[in-house]
Every structure is written in C-alpha cells, then in structure tokens.
Amino acid sequence: MDYSDVRNLISYSIKELQDLIDKKRDDYAVIRLVDPEECREVVINDDGNFEYGTSCYKLWGSCSHCKNCTSFRACRTNCEQDRREKLGEQPVSVRSIPVRIHSDDTESPVGTDYFYTLELIREISDDKQSENSPAHSQESIPGRTSNSNPEHPENSSEISPKRTSDNENYLLLHDMLTGCANGDGIRLIIRHALQENLDQNYVMVLTDIRRFSIINDLYGKHRANQLLIHFADILRKAYPGAPIGRIRADQFVLFIKEDQYDPDRLESLFVDLEAEEGKVIKHIHVHAGVLRVGEKEHELPVATLIDRANLAIQSAKESEKLHVIEFSQKMLHDMLQEQFVISNFQTSLEKGEFQIFLQPKVRLDGSLAGAEALTRWIRPDGQILSPAVFIPPLEKSDLITSLDFYICHQVVRKLDSWKGTILEHCPISVNISPKDAYYIEVADLLEQLCEEYQVPKELLHVEITETGLIETLDSNINVIQQLKNRGFQVEIDDFGKGLSSLNMLQHIDADILKIDMGFLHNTSNEDRRNIILESVIQMSRRLGMEPLTEGVETEEQAMALHDMGCYLYQGFYYSKPIPIPEFEKHCMNRKAAFGKAHG
Ligand code: C2E
Ligand code: CA
Ligand code: CA
Fold this sequence. Notes:
Layout: H1 4-7, E1 11-13, H2 14-24, E2 30-35, E3 40-44, E4 50-55, H3 56-60, H4 64-67, H5 70-77, E5 81-87, E6 90-102, E7 113-123, H6 127-132, H7 166-173, H8 183-196, E8 202-209, H9 212-238, E9 244-248, E10 251-257, H10 263-277, E11 286-293, H11 302-317, E12 324-326, H12 329-350, E13 354-362, E14 368-378, E15 384-385, H13 387-396, H14 400-417, E16 428-432, H15 436-439, H16 442-453, E17 460-465, H17 466-471, H18 473-485, E18 489-495, H19 501-505, E19 512-516, H20 518-521, H21 526-542, E20 546-550, H22 555-564, E21 568-570, E22 578-579, H23 580-589
Helix pairs in contact: 12-13, 14-16
Bound molecules: ligand C2E and calcium ion (2 copies).
C-alpha cells in the first residue's frame, strides 16, 4: 500500500486534508479523522470547519479500545500505529497516522493548529492471516517514525493492543502519586460519561493549590507530595466513586452529578483541609473553579470544559479569601475580548485604527483651558471600541507603552498643526500608563518629540493616574520630577478613586490635581460630599496644585465647584470626548466656548 501522499505533507490545511481524504476514499473501507483525546470522529462540514461526529466506542461497539487506543498513542508520540479491530463482524486493520492541521482562516487570532489522527481502515480476510502479513506496509513518513522503527522501541509492536498488559493500560491513564486518573484518563472518563448520559447534568470542579511551587521549594518535594495525596484522599472520601483526576502538578478535576454539588460543602472541605495542613504548611489556600455541564456543554471537548473551569479559577485567584467560584459567560467573553485585543493590536495600530478624541477642559465661562486626548479604537466596520475594552488587556500585556507613545506622537503633530490658528495656545494632555515608566524614558521621549516638531513643551500635559502612582510610587515620583524639570505640565489623574490618595500626596509635586467627581456621584448625602470636595480643593491649592474637577455633568455642579474654589472643569456638561475635526470645528465656530456660558 502506498502512503506517500499522506506522508509528504506533515502539516495540512483543512482543504488539503479534505482533498487527500477524498482521493484515498476508494482505497479503504473507511477513512476517519479522529480527535483521540475526545474519542470522537472529526468531520469537515460544508463551511470547511471541523465538527464532531460519531464517538469511537460507538463505532467499535466497546469502550475497551479507548484504554489502548492506537490513534491516541499516534497523536501523543507522533508515530504511526497499527492495530487490528472488528467493525461489526468484519475484521479490519487500522493504521493511525498523526496529522497536524492548520486553519485556512488567517484572521483567526488563536488556536489555529489541530492535532488529530487519520484512521485508514481496510478489511482483512481473517485475524490469523493478518497477523502474519500486516495489512499496512511499514514505510515511514518523513519527519515521523513508524511504529516498527527499532530506534523507538516504545513504539514497537510490543504495545499493540493484543500484547499490552493491563498494567500498562493502567499506567497510561493513571497518576502514580495519588492513584487518581491522570489528565488523559480523566478526559476519557468524562467524555464517556457525557456521551453515555445525555440527559444528565454534571458539575466539573477544578482545584488549584495557590503557589504550589513555593510549597515545593519551602517544604520539599516529599512533603508537597504528601499534601497532594492527602488532597486526593479528601476528594475521594467526600465524593466516593466520582471520577477524580490529577491533570497538572497541583490541579485536580472532580466530575460529579449536579445533584451532588453543594458549594458550601465544597467550601468547608477546603477550609478543613487548610486548617489541618496549615499546622505544618503556612498560608495554604485552595481555589476551585466550578463549571456546570448542562445540555449545551455536553458536546464541547473536555479540554474546553477544563479551560472554562480554569477561567473561573483565575477569577478566584484575585481573591485571597474565596475558595469556590463558578464559571460565567462573562468570564469567557472577557477572555475572548482580551485575546482579540492582544492579537489585533499591532496591525490595527499600524493601520491607524486608534484615533484620538478630545474632551475640552474649560473655565466657568465655558472658555477653553485645554483638552484631554482620549483614545478610541475604530474598527474597519465602523464600530467604536472604548478604552475600557482595550486599555486593561494592553496594560496586562505591556503593549500599552506602544499605544501611549503613538498617541503622544499624534498629539504633538496635532499641536504642530494648530500653530497660527485659534487653537495655537490650547494644551493637550495625554494619559500615561504607570507601566510606561518601566519601559521607556518618558521625559526623554516627549522632549525629543517636542523638539522634532518645535512644539512648546508647556502645551503637552501629562496625566498620570493616582492608582498607578501608588503602585509604583518611587519610579513615578522620579518620572514626575523629570517631566517637570524638562518643562512639561503634570496632572494627577483620578484623584479620589484610589485608597491611599492622601498619603501619596506627601511625596508628589504636580501642576494640576484632577479630582474625580465620579466617586462622589452616587451619594445620598450632598452636604457631606461637598465638605469632602471643598477640603480637597483647598488642600490642592495649598499644596501648590491647580484643582480641576472631572466628571462634571450639570450646571449646578459647576456652580457649586466654583463656589468651593475650583475654576477648571471637565465633563459631559461641557462636552463628551469628540473626534478632532469636530473639536476644531466647534472651537472655530463658537470662539472656543463649550457648554452654556455662565458665571
Ligand atoms: P480618564 O483619564 O479618567 O478619562 C476620563 C474618562 O471619563 C473618559 O472616559 C471620559 O469619557 C469620561 N468622562 C468625561 N466626562 C465625564 C462625565 O461627565 N461623566 C462621566 N460619567 N464620564 C465622563 P474614556 O474616554 O472612556 O477613558 C477611560 C480611561 O481610559 C481614561 O480615564 C484613561 O485612564 C484611559 N485612557 C484613554 N485613552 C488612553 C490612552 O491613550 N492611554 C492610556 N494609558 N490610557 C488611556
Ligand atoms: Ca485622564
Ligand atoms: Ca480621570
């Protein structure tokens, strides 16, 4: 038999694979593409995408093959494998060939490679004959090794189903330390349970011991292993007979029927464990991500179910106290959004999709005191994404510095273009992330930009958030001082949103203090709010910083702020952030007045 067509391509596109299957179909009784981890056939649908088909144990009429599936082995070892099988009453030979498939969809941001196995199934006359003369030839695929390669004894015929001992099957699917299933084992058990019990709802619990690597380092591997064994025992005792698997060093999966699930019980299980183990191991803390597996989730790959429970764990990790947290669709949405932002950022930046909107900063009479540059991401379909969507992922991935530098560049160019117009003296402020100071010499770069475009430095204001200042106080004080020394105006952003604002003010000497009204908006006690605002305004002045209140939404607020001694405002009452051409048009037409002039 000639497999050369299959072998010449190690990595296929979906289309190439489909063509190959079509071409080979006549040579075999059956050709199947399988996802061995899921124990299911994968079919290519009319749209050219993958879809799950028949489960393997349904096709072979038994589940025993799963334990020693050659397709599973082929995928894991990247080596072809042969086995004999019965399809109904008909003896067949199955050659499993691992294939890697890359998606044709170049737009797709993540997960474009699939590792599946192609099963080439031929009818053979009877078992005896086939044992003497293998139905499949022994040639090897370039870049891969066939199961008969003597250099790879682990893939030799010794591991063919007939000769594999039960003990080896056990080793393949179990964790030697705890006696639970291992990752592959638990995935097969769960897939089987879901396939066999379509009407049954389940709950998957994924547990994770916080900072397990530190426990390993501090208390030694032996003690850490004891903890894992103890942990597995506790789960086994609490949920007798339920599938339990250790999928990574300190991560266990528990799969129970929905009516067995009681979050309080799970919570107290972990509390008890922590109390007991805590006598020796300090600060031990267990997180658990919980996923409800209903009708919709039955068809999802088990690896996806585990990923979802893992997402819940990531949220649980943000809390020191919480043990158990349930997966929600919002977590998935946030994660996908985050991936979208990170993977599309660079090309979108190059295409000019990040644009500056300007929000005016005004005096009481509505005259313009400056503007703040606030970034919007305009997608090719016209959708406008707000900073709340893209700034947090960019900060998390440290890509924010590229954006901030780009925006600074655009702002300086804009200031340059305003020379000789009514906006010639209008300063623009840019937002600088606390991360920027780690990666770039902010003051040097801004100075270079201003020199390049011959823009006066006092027209470029720099806003740094108060929360950022608290997190990285030392380096940011340095940046503020450097910026001020070079002649830039520094504004402390979002004052009042953080927790230790007052403490921070001791160390910082900026030009403007932006007080965030937002944190006082929802108050039932206006008198007390005004006392706080007035005190902050006065304190700001006494510390040598001009106060500016942002988030001003009504005329009454502006008037009251004026009476308290604040003379600079920013907020929807005057204008929302608007595209630059609109901002320029407004300033030209209305002599730079925003909102209703009063005073
Ligand atoms: P921020 O610097 O505090 O900007 C003010 C935010 O408050 C803006 O939201 C603005 O639209 C909103 N706002 C203004 N007036 C009012 C009002 O009267 N009422 C209410 N409810 N909101 C008002 P936006 O544009 O969505 O920006 C959110 C945050 O994203 C900004 O907060 C800033 O921290 C960050 N950001 C925006 N652009 C950039 C950027 O280029 N770089 C960096 N590092 N951060 C940016
Ligand atoms: Ca700001
Ligand atoms: Ca602000």
